Amino acid sequence: MIPKKSNVFLFQASPDPGSARSSSFEQAIAPGNSTLHVCATLETLNVLIKRANENSGLLIVVVGYERATEGKDDHMWELATSAVAQIRNSNLHDAFVVLWSASESADAVKRSFWQRNGANMITESLDSVRSVLTTIETQLSGTGPLSTCPYCQIELPFYSLRIHMPLFHIQQGNKPGLCALCKFTHPKLAVHMSEAHDPSQSHKSKRQPVFSLVVARRPLDGKFLMVDEVCSWGWWLPGGGVDIGESLANAALRETLEEAGVDVELKGILRVEYTPSPHSSQSRLRVIYYAEPKDLTPPKCIPNYESAGACWVSLEQLKLLHLRGDEPIKWFQYVADGGAIWPLSILATERENCVFVANPF
Ligand SMILES: [Zn+2]
Ligand SMILES: [Zn+2]
């Protein structure tokens, strides 16, 4: 069944639900939008879920919550977690749940908790909430042959489904599904849609075994930038494959912006790795860059094919996260311990002039 419209609700887990915070939300999100409703009790939320179920509208619930001062009882935390659980335990498998919270968004451990408990997106930014609501509304009004989502069985036009899958199901792993354009069932439909049907014709179709990875540290508090990978692979360094014709440095900057939403300045190189293979086309080259952010823009929070989001993480928090591998631990400790960072000029093309660097030995 195709949902005809979306119903947007703000569930305010706050001692004062009619606060300035919820009115700022209403002003920012829904000027003139009659479908936005504010509620503050689980009973009201239950009624709204039932109503959305009956009229087959898509339910979007934004749960507003801020953590109480550490050490104090936080009844609102129980209310917010119960609200998310209530939505997830309903029959509305296509509901979209945003946790709107500065205290939870900036902490990778708390972000992981809310994702495990059913939030599709965690953000402190009202602009990001507005942006994702617009995206969801736009996908409902798309045209073209319909495709079925293998996760929630919703039917959407092909390119709308392409946007829908990472937004709604990024934590659910790969599933097989029929591609309406190829007329073929692919074992990993989301991967196929990401790589084979990118309307921007981006770099993804051109691959070589050359990679740039970025260890980015924020001088303000010594935290490191981590990406929450798609399909619950775990947290990992920003970075990825270098496009054919692209420089390693550009790939490092591009991937950090795409996966983490952070504009960084490359400051140096931690290591250059070349792993030979008997198959010439499979010999791998990886460069691990050291970088720092250009400004204090919060990391990306809207799930898409690049990542589920990103966060600045301390060494202590790193031990509490599900990691894709142990490389971030090694590199973050190395940088925190004052390990050598080599000048960017040690990596050059054959035509570039020699840059003098003083002998460090
Ligand atoms: Zn779906
Ligand atoms: Zn296809």
UniProtKB/TrEMBL annotation:
SUPFAM superfamilies: Nudix. It comes from the Eukaryota. It holds the Pfam family NUDIX. GO terms for biological process: AMP biosynthetic process; ATP biosynthetic process. Keywords: Hydrolase. This is Nudix hydrolase domain-containing protein. GO terms for molecular function: bis(5'-nucleosyl)-tetraphosphatase (asymmetrical) activity. The keyword Repressor does not apply. Coiled coil: none annotated. Residues 206-334 form the Nudix hydrolase domain. PROSITE patterns: NUDIX, NUDIX_BOX. Belongs to the Nudix hydrolase family.
